[in-house]
Specification:
By secondary structure, the protein is of the alpha+beta class. The protein has 7 helices and 3 strands, in the order αααβααββαα. About 60% of the residues lie in helices and about 15% in strands. The protein has a 3-stranded antiparallel sheet with strand order 1-3-2.
Amino acid sequence: MEKDQNNDNGCPAEGLLKQLSGKWKPQIFLSAVDGPVRFNALLRDLKGSNKQSVATALRELHESGLLEKETIQLKPLHIEYTLSEKGKSLVPVFRQLELFSAG
């Protein structure tokens, strides 16, 4: 019975993994660690990606609160994505995962 209650409440780590799961989300997140990212730059950097999959990943990362979206009012207009405070708080977790997978 207790096990069912845990499934209903969900595991915080499982929720986080779901937010970051997907073909391009981890790569986009790690790109944003280094500074603002733009859609077209991501398309160039993510070999094998396409507009729809990158747009979906960006939208989901933004909706989950990991990325902030800002419209830059320069000509031409463009949108930059940066890590939110929530996203920044996950950087040490990613660094630990990198160390774990390297060792």
